[in-house]
Amino acid sequence: MPTLNRPENMERIATAEQARAYIDEQIADIRAQVGDKKVLLALSGGVDSSVCAAILIKAIGDQLVCVHVNHGLLRKGEPEQVIKVFREELGANLIYVDAVDRFLDKLAGLTDPEKKRHIIGEEFIEVFAEEARKLDGIEFLGQGTIWPDILESEAGIKAHHNAGGLPEDLQFELVEPVRILFKDEVRVVGKELGLPDSMVYRQPFPGPGLGVRCPGAITRDRLEAVRESDAILREEFAKNGLEGKVWQYFTVVPDFKSTGIRDGKRTFDWMCIIRAINTVDVVEVSVEHLPADLIDHLVKRITTEVPGINRVLVDYTPKPPATVEYE
Ligand code: XMP
After folding, report:
1. Strand order through the sheet with 138-142
2. Both 54 and 165 in a single domain?
3. pTM for the full predicted model
């Protein structure tokens, strides 16, 4: 299974029936590969790792050990959703690691975007490896690798973040039940497995999480402002029928303050930038032009409900010349 490639002419999985057949096939393959051994999986709550986990739970139940690392850079409600869906509803063997302080302490004072990304990636592997070492009898590593990851790695476009990375003493055989699927197929399979829409149709979210939406040195209060404004934006997009229609939307709170007035007193606070974009290939990106009354409403809610924000801006810059994220 680790070297399995997508068969040429494989029909695109689009229906519930095709998804069911795929799931049954994977269950049989996983059981044959793993036997009575244990599989370890880093479960971020993203579409790929969630669908991978749900297939593995069906196939081997308690032999799967999921580790969810909360690095403090997740969106509002995400760790809670992972625990609810996987531990409570699907009965997964889930280890929740609260590594918030650890990550934020390491990131304190760091302003260089590449250094921030590097520390987040390195620390993630460190925390995951520590958990892996506490467990006995793990022989396999589950991974939510999907087919575009393989294609991009082969084309040298992107070093595939899933493959490898763990230290020498933790080399496991891979189990990759969504490896030959494209993203749209992963979603069809996820839906068939009964995962909630908020997980299956989740918009893309970068590995370094809200860390890249808090440009400059990450502080807890500014990170909280990003998290709260992002939650308001998502809520309003859902209410206004834009969820699922707009490819990606988020807020950014740079380390920059401007003057304002609140309750007749001068304030000196951050600004919140709203960005909503559409794309097919992520190489070229166009902006979603938001309805004026929605912008007014977002300005009101964000400046009223999010501590530390006294100004809201909308970013209408396509890619190129701007990238999607700010760092
Ligand atoms: P950029 O900013 O490069 O973003 O125009 C293009 C898309 O990629 C996402 N992105 C990331 N995804 N790890 C990820 O998994 C990352 O480090 C990362 N950086 C950017 C971004 O959200 C957008 O959808």
Report:
1. 93-98, 64-70, 38-42, 138-142, 173-175
2. yes
3. 0.94
